[in-house]
């Protein structure tokens, strides 16, 4: 059985006289079909455009013919089915493309021919258009008739919207993936400051919008310009000025080759170099643009290119083409390639042209020409045309292979092969999935897009100044995340004096220890570097606060463990205070030994030896309590230091208070009729001391049982240090402890002061007054010094207060007595004390 699938390809491949352009239908009937010929009148088109020959476009048209003939000769696909096609030229103009599509849908054409092919074959699908803007308009119209359209070069992201373009398919990836590839390249080389230029059409505007969305996550747009569709010298100059004055070294361009010509000429004219161009697939492999004239400015361009493929037999097919004077398409192509004119066309030429053209013989050989048409070494768009034809053929093959009862349509029916409808082919086109002869998978995703695989090409500048394309990498969207891009860095040609990767940034990366500070009114990529504050570090972008136990080093690059500070025995201050405390304890014990040894002497007896012994023992513990403040704080030392201090001081002051009371009572007892001493004997004295001490013990017990002191790593007082200290737990408890000691000291001082003028033997009150004056002065000055002292010096102040007050008591009370006992023993007699009533006062 013979059947015709008439496909349509919209290509800019042919031109006739200036100002006139034709749309051509070719009906190819192979497999038992008669030869054909046709002529086209030049007046069939009402709208005239100026067109020029595009070798690549004509190559794509011939590639489609080659693929159809290849399929028709292949018995494994569509056996007994013959494919045909109709071929139109859109002259790169939207009205032409829409006219062609309308003609196909309506099934009518203005054409003169001397034969008929058994009635017009059904038009089931359209291959084309290469332009995104054209494809958008045509697809909207074709979707009304449910006719599939397979484009080989329209990349606009918008065409992936199946709600708006339900019948659109393409064998080229969407711009969304092209943008991703470009962004990955920019990110790979660390470029964060780039310029962006796009053509003023759907292809350029949708791409640049998507690019702006992608790059904002790591970079910034230095400038964004639009290339006008209609040449505008002022606008082109403005774009070039933006390029010149921008500090961005990298410029991304989304444009077709035709739209870019004027801009490239102006860039070359102004001799702008030192820019790294990133090319979209629309112009990255254009041999016209990659010329010697553009090499200095555009050499080293990195471009996204459609996957290159091999089509065996295509070159031979192209070289075997021959002119046919009955086929004006080939006639005009031949005349253009060989710059000649066939004899029967000379009469139709204008006078100026006929005077300069040579005659064509028809025996010219295409092998002698080296142009884009016969060059099959870099097949990209043509390879996509080949895949598009095969995709339609496989869809049709699946359609005719349907088994009745297992069909995809209503009641599980299959399509009627004799009455095929385009919408039936769409169902199978969505499911196309095969490996072509060259190992590439041909399929469409849910959006009708082809798998996103790109070649990364580089414009290499050769020794003679020409430019060659070299594949330096691949971008495969289906690869493992993070491995989509592969680049051979060493094979990339950098068109810079250094020959190395250029740097394109607005601001230099901040050094470690500094952070970015965005400049007002400028993109985030433009910033100043501000040093991090103390306690923060950075690696170049933001400052991060070190954790509680760490602090920044001097350069603010790493967090180091904070210095732990406490008054230790290894510290010179701690060692000195410890020695002084031990010295004070030893001196107290030494005095105690002296008093015990001379306890039977009048001076020891006169000063109440038992109270003196207890006072010296409590002073010893007072000195030793200072040692609890030195060294690393622990739970026990924190509690012990204040308890031991509080109780030892209370015992000291209680003894002094009782001694003062005893002095007063003794004086009163000398008065006639006074018997007060019997009410304040030894038992009462002991009871008083015990009572005062128990009160302090009760305060300590309540404090320790509710909110006891505990070791604390204080990180707030000094930022760069950890102050290892004892927290008092309860300020009230600590205040009560010292307050009680102060209360007893004030009473002792007051009583001693009142008794300071008592007679000779009992002038102990003068020494007690002096010792209490020292004690009170020390602890009063202790409070502000304690509050204002930082870190370990807080502890040192408290130790100093303990030692100073203890030494004050020791020296003020016991030094005069030791002086008499050791140096003036003659005064240590009862007689001497009675004779010289002022002896003690003197010393």
Automatic annotation (TrEMBL):
Residues 573-837 form the G-protein coupled receptors family 3 profile domain. InterPro entries: ANF_lig-bd_rcpt, GPCR_3, GPCR_3_9-Cys_dom, GPCR_3_9-Cys_sf, GPCR_3_C, GPCR_3_Ca_sens_rcpt-rel, GPCR_3_CS, Peripla_BP_I. This is Extracellular calcium-sensing receptor-like. It comes from Erpetoichthys calabaricus. Belongs to the G-protein coupled receptor 3 family. The keyword Cell membrane applies. The keyword Cell membrane applies. PROSITE patterns: G_PROTEIN_RECEP_F3_3, G_PROTEIN_RECEP_F3_4. The chain crosses the membrane at residues 572-598, 610-632, 644-667, 688-708, 728-755, 767-787, 799-823. One of its GO terms (cellular component) is plasma membrane.
């Amino acid at each position: 059985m013979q059947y015709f699938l008439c496909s349509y390809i919209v290509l800019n491949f042919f031109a006739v006289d200036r100002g006139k352009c034709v749309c051509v239908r070719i009906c190819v009937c192979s497999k038992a079909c008669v030869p054909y010929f046709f002529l086209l009148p030049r007046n069939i088109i009402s709208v005239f455009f100026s067109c020029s020959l595009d070798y690549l476009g004509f190559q794509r048209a011939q590639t489609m013919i080659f693929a159809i003939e290849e399929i028709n000769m292949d018995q494994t696909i569509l056996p007994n089915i013959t494919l045909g096609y109709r071929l139109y030229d859109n002259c790169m103009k939207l009205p032409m493309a829409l006219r062609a599509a309308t003609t196909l849908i309506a099934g009518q054409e203005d054409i003169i021919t001397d034969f008929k092919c058994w009635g017009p074959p059904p038009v089931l699908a359209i291959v084309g258009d290469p332009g995104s803007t054209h494809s958008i308009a045509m697809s909207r119209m074709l979707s009304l008739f449910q006719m599939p359209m397979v484009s080989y070069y329209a990349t606009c992201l918008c065409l992936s919207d199946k709600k708006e373009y339900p019948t659109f398919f393409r064998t080229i990836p969407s711009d969304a993936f092209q943008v991703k590839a470009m962004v990955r390249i920019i990110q790979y080389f660390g470029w964060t400051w780039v310029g962006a230029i796009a053509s003023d059409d759907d292809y350029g505007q949708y791409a640049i919008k998507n690019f702006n969305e992608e790059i904002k996550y790591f970079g910034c747009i230095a400038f964004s310009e639009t290339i006008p569709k209609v040449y505008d010298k002022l606008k082109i100059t403005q774009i070039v000025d933006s390029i010149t004055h921008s500090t961005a070294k990298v410029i991304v361009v989304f444009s077709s080759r035709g739209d870019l010509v004027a801009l490239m000429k102006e860039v070359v004219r102004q001799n702008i170099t030192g820019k790294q161009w990133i090319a979209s697939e629309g112009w990255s492999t254009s041999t016209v643009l990659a010329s010697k004239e553009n090499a200095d400015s555009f050499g080293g361009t990195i471009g996204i290119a459609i996957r290159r493929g091999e089509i065996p037999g295509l070159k031979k097919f192209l070289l075997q083409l021959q002119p046919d004077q009955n086929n004006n398409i080939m006639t005009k192509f031949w005349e253009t390639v060989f710059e000649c004119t066939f004899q029967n066309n000379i009469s139709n030429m204008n006078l100026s042209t006929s005077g300069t053209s040579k005659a064509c013989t028809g025996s010219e050989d295409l092998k002698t020409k080296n142009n884009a048409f016969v060059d099959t070494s870099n097949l990209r768009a043509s390879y996509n045309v080949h895949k598009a034809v095969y995709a339609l053929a496989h869809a049709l093959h699946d359609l005719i292979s349907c088994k009745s009862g297992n069909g995809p349509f209503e009641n599980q029916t299959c399509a009627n092969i004799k009455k095929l409808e385009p919408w039936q082919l769409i169902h199978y086109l969505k499911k196309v999935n095969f490996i072509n002869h060259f190992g590439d998978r041909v399929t469409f995703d849910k959006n009708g897009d082809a798998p996103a695989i790109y070649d990364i090409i580089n414009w290499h500048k050769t020794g003679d100044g020409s430019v060659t394309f070299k594949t330096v990498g691949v971008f495969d969207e289906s690869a493992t995340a993070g491995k989509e891009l592969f680049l051979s860095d060493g094979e990339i040609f950098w068109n810079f004096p250094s020959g190395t990767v250029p740097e394109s940034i607005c601001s230099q990366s901040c050094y470690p220890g500094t952070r970015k500070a965005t400049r007002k009114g400028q993109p985030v990529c433009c910033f100043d570097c501000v040093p991090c504050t103390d306690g923060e570090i950075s690696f170049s972008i933001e400052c991060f606060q070190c954790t509680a136990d760490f602090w920044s080093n001097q350069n603010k690059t790493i967090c180091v463990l904070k210095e732990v500070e406490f008054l230790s025995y290894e510290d010179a201050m701690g060692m000195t205070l410890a020695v002084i405390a031990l010295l004070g304890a030893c001196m107290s014990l030494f005095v105690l030994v002296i008093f015990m040894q001379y306890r039977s002497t009048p001076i020891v007896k006169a000063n109440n030896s038992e109270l003196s012994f207890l006072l010296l023992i409590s002073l010893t513990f007072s000195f030793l309590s200072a040692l609890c403040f030195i060294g690393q704080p622990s739970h026990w030392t924190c509690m012990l230091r204040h308890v031991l201090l509080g109780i030892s001081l209370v015992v000291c002051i209680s003894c002094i208070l009782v001694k003062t009371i005893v002095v007063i009572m003794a004086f009163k007892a000398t008065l006639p009729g006074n018997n007060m001493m019997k009410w304040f004997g030894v038992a009462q004295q002991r009871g008083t001391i015990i009572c005062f001490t128990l009160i302090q013990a009760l305060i300590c017990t309540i404090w320790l049982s509710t909110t006891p002191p505990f070791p604390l790593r204080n990180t707030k007082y000094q930022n760069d240090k950890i102050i290892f200290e004892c927290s008092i737990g309860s300020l009230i408890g600590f205040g009560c402890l010292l307050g009680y000691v102060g209360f007893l000291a004030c009473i002792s001082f007051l009583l001693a002061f009142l008794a300071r003028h008592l007679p000779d033997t009992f002038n102990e009150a003068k020494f007690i007054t002096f010792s209490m004056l020292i004690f009170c002065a020390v602890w009063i000055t202790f409070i502000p010094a304690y509050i204002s002292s930082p870190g370990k010096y807080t502890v040192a102040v408290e130790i100093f207060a303990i030692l100073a007050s203890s030494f004050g008591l020791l020296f003020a009370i016991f030094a005069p007595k030791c002086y008499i006992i050791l140096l003036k023993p003659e005064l240590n007699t009862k007689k001497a004390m009675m004779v010289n009533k002022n002896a003690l006062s003197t010393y």
